[in-house]
Design goal:
By secondary structure, the chain is mostly beta strands. Helices cover 8% and strands 50% of the residues. The longest helix is centred in the first third of the chain and has 8 residues.
């Protein structure tokens, strides 16, 4: 049995289980978003010195949860740490989810 609807999908993003709440405030009305926080591997070209390997924060969430008016450059606050992050990219993954690529502000 697969994931059938938004309610089934929401179980994966529940902050009481796997999820984590982020606050996104694109239009002055703060929205608490249920996400899955990921510290994804990132490799960055360092000119003639090769590559530098590290991690990049990513929040995964259902596309239907994205706040209206949310765009690159907006700020998200991670409730678990209070840290603020700037949105670098919003990447729909073709399955109804989006990856929000972040950098610490």
């Amino acid at each position: 049995m697969g994931i059938e609807d938004a309610a089934d999908l929401a179980a994966f993003f529940d902050p009481d289980d796997f999820g984590e709440t982020l606050t996104w405030d694109p239009d002055g009305t703060a929205a608490g978003l249920a996400t899955i926080w990921i510290e994804a591997h990132a490799e960055i070209a360092a000119g003639g010195a090769g590559h530098v390997s590290g991690s990049r924060p990513i929040a995964s969430l259902p596309i239907t949860s994205l706040p209206a008016g949310g765009v690159r450059g907006d700020i998200i606050r991670r409730e678990a740490t209070g840290l603020r992050f700037r949105i670098i990219d919003i990447q729909p993954d073709g399955t109804g989810l989006a990856r929000i690529v972040l950098e610490e502000e």
